[in-house]
Amino acid sequence: MLIRHPEDLPSSEITPESTYLRRRTFIGAGAAVAAGVAVRSLSPWTTPASATPLRGQDQDDELTPFEDVTSYNNFYEFGLDKGDPARNAHRLRVRPWTVKIDGEVAHPGDYELDDLLRGMTIEDRVYRLRCVEAWSMVIPWRGFALRQLLDRVEPTSKARFVEFTTLFDPAQMPGQRRAVLRWPYVEGLRLDEARHPLTLIATGLYEQDLPKQNGAPLRLVVPWKYGFKSIKSIVRIRLTERQPRNSWNIAAPNEYGFYANVNPEVDHPRWSQARERRIGEFRKRRTLMFNGYGEQVASLYAGMDLRKNF
Fold this sequence. Notes:
Shape: globular
Order of helices and strands: HHEHHEEHEEHEEHEEEEHEEH
Largest sheet: 8 strands, mixed
Oligomer: single chain
């Protein structure tokens, strides 16, 4: 990918004009939210009228161009190279799609995608995705707050964690034919993290259904955590009493913990996390604690040692 100095190009050239103009709509809607104006509820797959703004960051952050968001991905089920998902994900069948919800819930079952989405408040939110390789993107996601789904299935009093599982189908996902990780991919959150209003189940981005290489039809987005928490192509959500083992923690426990909170004061064993490079920019910028969402989420970790609980 060609990287050019941002000052050499006008914003309208870095991002397609329609996208650039739409960004202004996002920012204007963000100002309305900040002023206490309610965001309009949306039915699934409709065009949004507003967006939740970036929190704790510059409201004028440029959105990462759609072409970069959909061509530079970590999705090892389709290959190890950043461009492999875009090349290989076309074989993924996203209809029909069923999500099993089980464990410590009052209403377990196999939910067909349309039934699962029915009645959900779908909205657009602009969140950053921060990855441990020290790169980041600013993406306009579409989806619903995970807590809506949890409220629907009613966790029992024993539920303390939420475990997510990705589709396992090597015929569709050629990366699963290699023992890079223990398949299927598994990720987890504490129940209070999962119920936080910022935690999103994404169904789309840039006002489109979620592309296959970005985790169609459902992926997790937790904006204060590193991107490997954003499990893709979810087929199972299980509520548990015990903390689940997430895939990267199983593969490299000295490098990847359960929490995966963005903490620039703790280096990855193989690189610094203090600075990051936004895709499409030349200069690095300082990494923010909790990815800039500290005001909203720091209370979740009060009293915890975030060097040991990484």
